[in-house]
């Protein structure tokens, strides 16, 4: 369980860092008309992770919670902070039996471990999109795609 948690947290930490680099005027930036707005995509990541963890904990599909409304990047960051803290607590509640239990999500049945891996992959996929959004809006200082080991940071690797 610890490996899943650590792997997820290395990516989530970078999501927080990435959003710090986005200017406040870009909260509703969309690269195309039907795409997610930048803030909506960040909130979608957090809400989806919550949905996956609740589903795995409960052993059956749990509909995503609707996050509160936002108007600013600061509010997007607050929502992400709130969901991140909840996800950390949810991870602590997971047991091996949760990962072994077969769960149906959208007519696909797989063990909780499959859905946990899918949750992490989903977050990585959308975080990659946010990297592109951030570059398109002029962000210059970008974090590495996942949290680096302490030694790499100390050696100036970025």
Outline the structure in words.
Belongs to the DinB family. Helices cover 61% and strands 5% of the residues. By secondary structure, the chain is mainly alpha-helical. The chain has one domain (2-154): dinb family like domain (Four Helix Bundle (Hemerythrin (Met), subunit A), Up-down Bundle), CATH 1.20.120.450. The protein has a two-stranded antiparallel ribbon with strand order 1-2. Helix 1 runs antiparallel to helix 3 (73-93). The longest helix is centred in the last third of the chain and has 25 residues, at 112-136. It starts with a helix and ends with a helix. The model has no long low-confidence stretch (mean pLDDT 94).
Can you describe this structure in just a few lines?
With 158 residues, this protein is mainly alpha-helical. The chain has helices at residues 2-20, 38-58, 73-93, 96-100, 112-136, 150-154; strands spanning 102-105, 108-111.
Let me know the CATH homologous superfamily.
dinb family like domain
Q: How many structural domains?
A: 1
Given as residue ranges, the uncertain stretches (5+ residues, pLDDT < 50) are none
CA gyration radius, whole angstroms: 16 Å
Determine the strand fraction and express it as a percent band.
5-15%
Terminal residue distance: 28 Å
Count of distinct strands = 2
Report mean pLDDT, rounded to a whole number: 94
Q: How can the largest sheet be summarized?
A: 2 strands, antiparallel
The helix count comes to 6
Main sheet strand line-up: 1-2
Helix content: 55-70%
Order of helices and strands: HHHHEEHH
Shape: globular
CATH class descriptor name: Mainly Alpha
CATH topology: Four Helix Bundle (Hemerythrin (Met), subunit A)
CATH architecture: Up-down Bundle
Structural class computed from helices and strand pairing = mainly alpha
